[in-house]
Amino acid sequence: MTNVAFAGNRKSNLWQEANNLFKQNNYDQAAILYEQIASSKPNDASLYFNLGNVYYKLNKIGEAVLNYQRAIRIQPSFQEAKDNLELTMSRIPNRIPSSGDIFFILWWKGITKATFSGFWAALSLLFFLSSLGIVTMQRLGKINFNSSKISLTGFLFCCLFLLFAFTSAHRKSEHNTAVVMKHDAPVSLDVSNGKSISYIPEGTTVIIEDEQKDNLQIVLPDGRKGWINKVQVERI
Amino acid sequence: MQRIGLVILSVLLGFSFLTQAQTAVFSANASANRIGDKDQVQVDYTIQNVQNMRSFIQPSFKDFDVVAGSPFSQQSSNISVIGNKVVQTQSITYSYILQPKHTGALVVPPAQVKDADGHTYQSNGLNIEVVSGSLARQRQQTQQPLDPFDDPFVSMMRQRQAMMQRQMQPQSAQPNQKQQSIPEEEIKTDVGKDLFIRVTVDKNKVHIGEQITASYKLYARIPMNVNISKLPSLNGFWTQDFERPKGNIAPTEEIENGKKYQVFLLKKSALFAQQEGTLFLDPAEAEGTARIISKTRQRNPFADMFDDPVFQQLGSLMMSDPFFNDDAFSSLAYRDVPVKLKSEAIKINVLPLSNTKKPKDFGNAVGQFTISGKVDKTNVTTDDAITYTFNITGSGNLKLIEAPNLNLPNGLNTYDPQIIDTITGRTTTISGSKIITYSITPNIPGDYEIPAIPFSYYNPQTSSYVSLATTPVKIHVEKGKHYNQAVTKKQIIADIHPIVTKPLVQLNPESKPLFYTIGYWTSYVLPLFAFIGLTFYKKREDELSKDAVKMRNRRANKVALKRLKTAEKSLQQQAKQAFYEEISKALWLYLSDKLNIPLASLSKEKAFDVLKLKNVPLDLQQKLTQTIAACETALYAPTSSSEMKHTFTEAVDIISKLEETV
Description:
The complex is a heterodimer of chains A (236) and B (662).
Chain A: H1 2-23, H2 27-38, H3 45-57, H4 61-74, H5 79-90, H6 103-111, H7 117-139, H8 148-173, E1 177-180, E2 185-188, E3 196-200, E4 205-212, E5 215-219, E6 225-229, E7 233-235
Antiparallel strand pairs in A: 1-4, 1-7, 2-3, 4-5, 5-6
Helix pairs in contact in A: 1-2, 2-3, 3-4, 3-5, 4-5, 7-8
Chain B: E1 25-30, E2 34-36, E3 41-48, E4 53-57, E5 64-66, E6 72-82, E7 85-100, E8 104-108, E9 112-115, E10 120-122, E11 126-131, H1 136-142, H2 152-173, H3 184-194, E12 195-201, E13 205-207, E14 211-220, E15 224-230, E16 237-241, E17 252-256, E18 259-273, E19 277-281, E20 285-294, H4 309-319, H5 322-328, E21 333-342, E22 346-351, E23 367-375, E24 379-381, E25 386-396, E26 412-414, E27 418-426, E28 430-442, E29 446-450, E30 454-459, E31 464-469, E32 473-478, H6 485-489, H7 518-573, H8 576-595, H9 604-613, H10 618-634, H11 641-661
Parallel strand pairs in B: 2-11, 13-22, 24-32
Antiparallel strand pairs in B: 1-3, 3-7, 4-9, 5-7, 6-7, 8-11, 9-10, 12-14, 14-18, 15-20, 16-18, 17-18, 19-22, 20-21, 23-25, 25-28, 26-28, 27-28, 29-32, 30-31
Helix pairs in contact in B: 7-8, 7-11, 8-10, 8-11, 10-11
């Protein structure tokens, strides 16, 4: 326990030092300190936001986008991070325009975002327990009215929320979004065929669909699909 | 004029255009600055080095009638090799012949051209003084009569022809003599002294961006015909040529080492160093032929006198003086020899601008400037665009000045500004203006202030920085027709939001989703098990109690039969009291077990209620009542053995019948 507390104390010292370095425009040093804190992958959006800012100042577009995305992943309501991400992405040369999702996919994504996983799981459990409670009461003859419809609806809701919980938990645990970290990363149509069909600018956010050895099948922001080497990207 | 007769100079036509190819120049020139109202004036708009020119926008001549109806353009291009680069210079001239409408100081407006990239270039305007009457005749007298169109080349060609003619005369009278006897080396040394190119600069030590005036001059004291073969490549400099005198290139006279030279100004440029260090102005080169005049010893009366080596030298100096030669010695031999001329490279030390007190907004401006900034309108809607014009006027390295940033508040947007450089003065310093036009689009309604634009320059004369600033401009923006809040919200911010400094809260790594934890599923499974367990327990309980009833029911018959057997024994022994007791017990116990009524709460009424409920036939009920009553009375009244037998058979019958119905 004391060990954990000591580590936490050291991290907050590093954090303050890094923030001071940033204010003194010493971005190189600040980046090193922030990365030291980030090495244990703490789940604090502020850290990744500041890291993004450092890399933006150092003009490392790929790293900046990656860290802003990480911050938003942890805290989807982080408006400053979204603004900074948008600004950073506007500096990507030959940026691939995003095709955007259809409204119901957007709804689905909104309902099942990673941060809701706990909420859905709890809600599902609540409905399960209440419905079970109602059934038990009925069995014991404590309630006289016919409650089977209520308990049935409760169980249906429980299942629905369980589905939400499953999807968002999947989204939370699975890192299937990645950022292209190399400039003009080649993308090919086939795994075996190394002929590149396109070159993706650094800082492009892609979705990983499949994995084969060293290659990943990705979906580009405009909906095109292709294979890319693992070393070119970093998962969020 | 007559004295230059011996000197022939041919300059390439393209020479005057041979500036740096990258430098676009757009200038207007008039054939005269002062004309009579009956005269015509030719105005030339000359565009140099504008790539992909698209359109020429004809100025509106308010004060003039255009005599030459449509403008006629003249295009020329020149390819030359400078250093190891091929430079192509293109120039297009649009000419108008104009007739003034009235007298006074009239203005010839500037013209504009546009290129494919969308740049707009603007020429300078011209002021022409118009007096009444005609000045054309006077002007022709002052100018060269052979030079109607002010073309230096034409005039030079004519001059050259005249000179040649004059030269031919002595030559034909005295054909070349002893040409071969003169050794080549001797000629060359002579030529070097008589004909050379010299580059002069007004200063050798400058700061970055400070103007240096470089003059390329040809010194000659013998007849020659020279073409410039190579102009210096001015690497590291931004150059701007000075305006050369119009028409004939009139040589000046200069005395060098006691000798008189004709000096031709080939080129005069303003140089602005762009980098610090030691820069070299490469030599300029020229090729051509020079006419060497050598004495003929046999016929020259002074020849013997100059045999003495001391005099020899003196003599050669005298001999090569064209003035001297021309008049005095008709017996001299002429010879055309090829010459190659090369100026000396000039070293220029470029000092960096002092870093102390260097303003933050310094944008490479060196010279002397004034600035002004204005907007076209201050009350706009979100549909409009505001044009902000920032004007830098003065002398110095105009072209190299960086456009300042506007630092607009959030809600106002601007893109890359349009920059127009106009060089108007080319006399002793390069002066003009740089007009930077920003197009500002307001996105969100509100009141804004376009902040003051700071501008600073280095004044090399006082060796100090001067900082200027425009006044801030207030802008009021109203909602326009096409204003869309949603689009505006997505507007990209100008700079990133600052870092977060609040302490880190969540230092632990990302937790596993609740969904994947055992605890979560346990909280599903445990209540479920509890429920299932409870259900089973309840079921078993129910079943168990149901079994007890069945057992007693089943037992009822057995018990009754047992009792009836003991009653039968008592009947054989004629034990009256025991018999009726047994019959009564058998019936009551049977009813208790069969009807599931505890013995304690068993009464006649209750028993018959239940029997009624179970639809037992009435006669059977009556039989039961009679038998129970018989048992009760028999205990106290004397009974016969036949009565006892009857009661026994009745009881057996009741039990067997009840067994069937219940």
